[in-house]
Amino acid sequence: MNRKGTEKPIEIFVALFIILAVALVMLKLFQSQIADQTKKISDVQQEQRAKEMLQNARQACSDKCVEASNNQCNRAALASLCMYSSDKVVPPPDFIDLNKDQKLDLDTTLLAGIGVCEDRIYCFHLLSSCCAREISASSCKSILTEYWQSKQFTPAQVSSMLTANVNAGTCSDPGNIRWDKLPDWTSG
Fold first, then answer.
1. Residue 81 contacts residue 71 (beta carbons within 8 Å)
2. CA geometry: angle at 41 spanning 121 and 172, to 5°?
3. Strand-pair category, 116-117 with 129-130
4. What is d(CA 64, CA 69) in angstroms, rounded to the nearest whole number?
5. CA nearest 173: which of 108, 92, 122?
6. Under DSSP, is residue 84 helix (H, G, I), strand (E, B) or coil?
7. Which residue from 2, 26, 160, 176 has the fewest beta carbons nearer than 10 Å?
8. Nearest to 119 by CA among 89, 86, 88
9. pLDDT tens string 79-129
């Protein structure tokens, strides 16, 4: 008789221990689900923020194009468009994370493999034309060269100004930018 009285508390203790173990497992599963969902939400917010910043940069470039059109597409307005970059819309240390890896680096998705630093995206990366002219790295080099030469700068000064005003950016490896696909800013 005494034996049955001591078995009941042990059974209750074992049952409570099993319930506690199951509850802990369920809590761990719930916690991992919360962590996964939080990460997914964070990733979606990061992607949305990058899209918004890229759209803001495109809009700023479109505004610069409209400004150039309003100024009869003069050299100064087109030169301003060519030198305008994303760091004016998205001030450092922030940048437009094109490849969604949450670090400042070289992106090859925007220009189909050519490469661009995410902190220095120029209007010639985002626009294809303005004032019935092609807008590209090559055409911007010509536009800037013509503009500065019209201001009586020497070819050496123009070359120096091109390098100073249109640079690759500060991503960790700007050496991987396919400069063979872009104009040589240093040649006169």
1. no
2. 30
3. unpaired
4. 9
5. 108
6. coil
7. 2
8. 86
9. 999 999 988 888 878 888 888 788 888 887 776 667 788 888 999 989 999
